[in-house]
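To close the section, here is one more complete example, presented without commentary so you can practise reading it yourself. The ligand is 9D3.
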Amino acid sequence: MITFHILTLFPEMFTSPFSQGVLGRAKDRGIVKLSFYNIRDYAQGRHKSVDDYPYGGGNGMLMMYEPISLALGAVESATGTGVADHVILLSPQGKLLTQAITQNLASSEHIVLISGRYEGVDNRVTEHLVSSEISIGDYVVSGGELPAMVLIDAVSRCVSGVLGSDKSASNDSHSQGLLEYPQYTRPSTIDGHSVPEVLLSGNHAEIEQWRLGQALKRTRDVRPDLLPDA
Ligand code: 9D3
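Output:
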């Protein structure tokens, strides 16, 4: 059982990805739990502000420290434990998410995810409330919600019992080393395009050799950066 505690201004964004498929099932079966904390609910004062102008000037607004800190307090009240070592801020400044990281996170009981909006967060959040920052890649998306969903999906797949068999989970992590080989299903010919002969041969040694060759070629052509590790 793993619980993701999600601090966000937009909890509704998270509903559909986790109501279907592998993750929907994992949730229904109680293997994965999602718990939401709307940062707006922890805003203080007459205006219930969650964002403010950056000291020193600059573009846009920043998420304030206080509502995030209070929301983290609510997580600790709900769990009855300290969570300080398991607080992840989704951030363009973070370490790149990898399969090795998702596998490590999968053994946690509680993971707290902070999804930001605006141009960023008060750096005191990062320094004093967050234990690690994670990015999902070198491109810009509009907030931390989609990255949090990507992380939850990827981590959940590594949790025992979420996929059909533990073999599927280890198969997932193998495909980290090399890109996958081409795959085909029926019919054996369509629009004049045939399935490679070797796959119909029934010779399993030859099929395995062909698949490895294809995987290596694809990886060299498309993702040569993966090859030294494979
Ligand atoms: C990097 C661009 N920033 C400086 C101008 C502004 C900014 C844009 C979008 C700051 C934050 C965001 C929202 N993105 C995330 O919170 C985010 C993210 C991402 O944009 N790309 C990859 N991984 C992540 S994790 C969180």
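Once you have examined the tokens, check your reading against these statements. The chain has a mean pLDDT of 96. DSSP finds seven helices and nine strands in the chain.
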